[in-house]
Amino acid sequence: MAVGKQSKSRTEQEEFEETPLVVALITYIGYGILFVFGHLRDFLRYAGLERSKLAQEHPKMKDFQPLFRNFEAFYTRNLYTRIRDCWNRPICSVPGSHFDIVERVSPDYGWTFKHTGEKKTYLNLGSYNYLGFAENSGPCSDAAVASIAKYGVSACSARAELGTTKLHTELETLVAEFVGKDAALTFGMGFATNSTNMPILVGKGGLIISDELNHTSLVLGARLSGAKIKVFRHNDMENLESILRKAIVEGQPRTHRPWTKILIVVEGVYSMEGSVVNLPGVIALKKKYKAYLYLDEAHSIGALGSSGRGVCQHYGCNVDDVDIMMGTFTKSFGAAGGYIAASQAVIDALRTHSHSNGYATSMSPPVVQQVLTSMRIIMGQDGTNDGTRRIKQLAENARYFRQGIKKLGFIVYGNDASPIVPVLIFLPAKVAALGREMKKRGICIVVVGYPATPIVESRVRFCLSASHTRADLDKVLHAMDELGDIIGFKYSQQEQPALN
After folding, report:
1. What single-letter DSSP state applies at residue 85?
2. Which of 77, 85, 279, 482 has the maximal Cβ count within 10 Å?
3. CA atoms within 13 Å, Cβ hemisphere of 420
4. In this structure, are strands 183-187 and 338-342 parallel, antiparallel, or unpaired?
5. Which pTM value belongs to this model?
6. Do 382 and 388 form a contact (C-beta atoms < 8 A)?
7. Which contiguous run of DSSP H or E holds residue 237?
8. Residue 385: which H helix or E strand, with range?
């Protein structure tokens, strides 16, 4: 099934400006100073001159395997804790274009927090609400509430037992129709959709070739499978082909027998880089070397393509060339859970052997109804053009904001079509400063650092939504322009036209 005409130069829109050497050097020095002071404080704690507030091994357990990794524990107590107020903020409303946050204070520099009892409204640039379906009014909300009267809030059973309702069956039929596959299977958690089902698809004697930037759930699923894992450089088709060719020529280690299966694993949109997979190139290599393709569309389904069909529609690729299509309902559908769509034979095998299908409680009925209603709106089955309007608005917002933030002189990663716009900050002190200063200006953002990113590539990740207005985006651009000068992280060395 084809989902649209091939769009030209899609892969040429990717942008990853190199880190200026001076900035990289200063960043390393900054982390070096923090590590020196961290070790000094650890010495003071060891000497009893400073009390440690972090969980630690009991003295009687010294001969057992440690529960904490030394470096991660060191990083948490000496770096992360100091700026923990930039994360884990408790919200008390739907995560729409604006949301309410419970204000809190820390009397001990991030070790503990106390709620002040005050609530404030902020502009939300951090939630995965791509199409704006995170609403507490309207058709989606009304239908979800109505479903509780008939089905309750939980099926109280796994899908393989008594956890399948009429809603679950309708959703799987609709998902298969939406993505253009024979059948689909849904799960209650997006992370588990990858981590518990990949071991069913490939096992010992198989080979998984994974993009270096793949999500943790894909990494965990690959490790649990028992298959051999090889990693290729992000979107580097020459490197991928080299690994495929070598794998086929040499076969399995020691025995040199042919691999039982070769599975290429990629994502549609990479959430930390705002990058879009080079799907035409991957499909060409997959066909050439007779491999299988697993596509994670957690961030691309609903968000890319003229009708929200994802990265296949974005490039005009045939969905039949993608063997396994995975996605989540968390981002574009304002719900929770995930799905796998494939041939009927693959879905039947997963339905029989998947641990998520056999042991995990099925999706909550009102959550299923939320997905059903939002997906029907996207497909136009509600008799309106609201779905098309939301998809178009998201694309316009992504283009406008990315172009605007680049013109201000920041280093911006990713693809022009991506609803995720990462802006590089680099220095750890500037990560905290930006998060706090944006909050003072009524804007909540997601700042990201190690270990979620490489240690010298800390960034702010803007998540755009169809619910954002042009005034919302202009407010963020103005704040970033101001803080970029005050904090000092306009590092781009590329010439940009002036921002009007």
Report:
1. G
2. 279
3. 27
4. antiparallel
5. 0.91
6. no
7. helix 237-250
8. none
